[in-house]
């Protein structure tokens, strides 16, 4: 009988810990209006890095550390990827970023998902939305966003690592203005 009580207590403790992790991550997300970070992105083995600013909901500006002056910008509706030689425009709702840039959507999915602890360092939530597989990672110590991994409808694997995060800074009003063509 003591064994059953011990097992029941362990199960209750584990579920309470998981609930606390979710609560802390959600509280952290709710307090973020914008976030700036350095990133390293690996898309099917091609590594790029730079700096991004996200303003919730659904706005992002990224400047890549490349010679071609690559930028990625979303005004909440469209997504532009521009270099010195190219200009691509996408509807944001056709990309995995549509979900990653929507704080309320992330909070809802975190509430619905089970937290998975990875290497005792990271907390992972995995979900699929509109044929996009999305993994979001948080720091186990301070519950801050560490990155994401997406698998899009074309089966492109994209892994993004975040570092040097700063939260709720004053932003330039025109930061998320879509750039003109070259």
Identify the CATH homologous superfamily: Lipoprotein localisation LolA/LolB/LppX
User: Which CATH architecture is right?
Assistant: Clam
CATH topology, by name, is outer membrane lipoprotein receptor (LolB), chain A
Task: Please give the alpha-carbon distance between the first and last residues.
Answer: 74 Å
Averaged pLDDT, please? 88
**How would you describe the shape?**
globular
- The main sheet orders its strands as 6-5-4-3-2-1-11-10-9-8-7
Tell me what the structure shows.
- The protein is built from three helices and eleven strands; from the N terminus they run αββββββααβββββ.
- Strands 6-5-4-3-2-1-11-10-9-8-7 form an eleven-stranded antiparallel β-sheet, with helices on one face.
- It has helices at 2-30, 97-100, 103-112, and strands at 34-43, 46-55, 59-64, 71-74, 78-82, 87-91, 116-118, 122-129, 132-139, 145-151, 157-167.
- Helix content is 24%, strand content 42%.
- Mean pLDDT is 88; it is low at 3-16.
- With 182 residues, it is of the alpha+beta class.
- The longest helix has 29 residues, at 2-30.
- The protein is globular and about 50 Å long.
- The termini are far apart.
- The chain has one domain (2-167): Lipoprotein localisation LolA/LolB/LppX (outer membrane lipoprotein receptor (LolB), chain A), CATH 2.50.20.10.
- β2 (46-55) and β3 form a beta hairpin.
Care to give the gist of this entry?
The chain is an alpha+beta fold and 182 residues long. The protein contains three helices and eleven strands; from the N terminus they run αββββββααβββββ.
